Amino acid sequence: MSSVCVDLLNPIAMAGHQPVLLSEALAFLNPCSHTKLLDCTFGGGGHARSFLNAAPGTTVTALDCDPEASSRAVALEAEFGPRFRFQDLNFGQLDRLEESGFGCVLFDLGLSSFQLDVAERGFSFRLEGPADMRLDPRVGQSASEFLEKAPKEEIVRAIRNFGEEKRWRRVVGAILSARGTGVLSNTSRLAALIASVAGNRPPRTTRIHPATKSFQGIRLAVNRELENLEFALPIAFAKLAPGGVMVVISFHSLEDRLVKRFFRRMAGKAEHSGDSLPEQLRHRRANLPMNRPIRPGEEEVARNPRSRSARLRALQKLEIESNGIEV
Description:
327 residues, Rossmann fold, DNA polymerase, domain 1, 12 helices
């Protein structure tokens, strides 16, 4: 991958929001004049703004289902005019976007500081508030409604499968027992409940709060994030122009696994150790510029501790001639 056209690799802080792996993402996306970016997760707008500033003539189409994101997009619309276009869409609705031929596609799957630092959104147990956790609070069940009403097998799926919580039986049992008590409606009380059954680990075995994994699993379940990602990746790849680049920044092992397997499939490689598909049946449609994900450096983690779990993967679509020959 070539370097970006201008030196815009210094991270940007926007009212407390710091785009993760910004310089690394821009290095792969390589914004040059007239390059089109599809930003599937606008969030705080840091990546989009950096792309627009990188070279004259770059354009961004940004998606986000968070109603607060649309208000933040107004500033970019005023500053960049027709070069920036915002769509009130979850990337799970990417098939509704008619535009294609993008030179770059970006997914930044982490929550923004705007979401984490607002108690009313219910994403963080550091702040007392309603246990909501919806990316789009206009639709669907809140986390508390999900925990109160969902069948046991769905709670198990959220805590065991999505949260990867080792003590999932205890956590699920505690949640089911707490139904109807009001405990599940509040982030602090919910976190305390989970910690009471999942927090008695030996000292120094973990630095994270004992409710972290369960909260993450509940959020993934409430927003159908993994299902939406699995649906969106092939659609986003189809919207890439030949030679275009897709970058995905993930913060959860299950997200990263989905991305890794999709990228390897597009590159004509075995998706995992148990993939026995014969070589002649694989179809190479892209190149993998690296085999392992890029992680934030010590300096970025020190500056922004929330970046510590980030993983960046990139994929470049092949150039295809009209006769179907790869070039």
